[in-house]
Amino acid sequence: CWYLARQLPDINIQVFTNSHPICHELGKRERIQLISSGGTLERKYGCYVNPSLISQLKSLEIDLFIFSCEGIDSSGALWDSNAINADYKSMLLKRAA
Q1: The whole model's pTM is what?
Q2: How far apart are CA 5 and CA 8, in angstroms?
Q3: Selection from 8, 39, 32, 60 nearest residue 19 by Cα
Q4: 20 to 30 A Cα–Cα from 61, which one of 32, 42, 90, 92?
Q5: Model pLDDT for residues 10-23, shown as the tens digit of each residue
């Protein structure tokens, strides 16, 4: 996702992310409305972890969800760097479907 963010022009869109590197990259573009999930920075993975965020995601309207993960099993369950990130991305994927 960071590689995509680097290529994204300064256009009028809203981006919601838990990625520290993406926040840093897109923060340089004035027209992009950048929303961070906040929480505790997991330096090893470069992302913010916020367990209380899962319940708040239900109010988001998502037009397009672009994400990366460690893997997806045959039942469609996401695997990621930690369980909170997997739950976070699973919820966003359901909201975008």
Answers
A1: 0.78
A2: 5
A3: 39
A4: 42
A5: 999 999 999 999 99
